[in-house]
Amino acid sequence: MAWISLLVAGILEVVWAYSMKQSAGFTRPIPSVVTLVVMIASFALLAMAMAMRMMPLGTAYAVWTGIGAIGAFVVGIVALGEPRTPLRVLAASLIVAGILLMKFAAGD
């Protein structure tokens, strides 16, 4: 259950990052409110994941931020037309490798 909470928290991190971009510096009310509400939910799920099985802080935080980074990378390319260069894809691949290593190192 801790890993599911962490996965959802990471997905919500992507949602709040995207809605923050859409808020145009918090000048648009609806995306601004979505950002804040989803951010709180993401933090709460991260906290729950760490508390449920005493997941190590380093593992939980690295996986959470990694999911957010990769998700934001994909959303940036797909929805915002950001460039997909070989070097950016390599960097994202290294983040995914790091997430997987953290998961396996946790022994769950």
TrEMBL record:
GO molecular function, one term: transmembrane transporter activity
InterPro entries cross-referenced by the UniProt entry: EmrE-like, Small_drug/metabolite_transptr, Small_multidrug_res
GO CC terms in record: plasma membrane
SUPFAM superfamilies given in the database record: Multidrug resistance efflux transporter EmrE (SSF103481)
Keywords, comma-separated and alphabetical: Cell membrane, Membrane, Transmembrane, Transmembrane helix, Transport
Protein location: Cell membrane
Major subcellular location class: membrane
Pfam families for the chain: Multi_Drug_Res (PF00893)
Stated name of the protein: Guanidinium exporter
Organism this protein belongs to: Zeimonas arvi
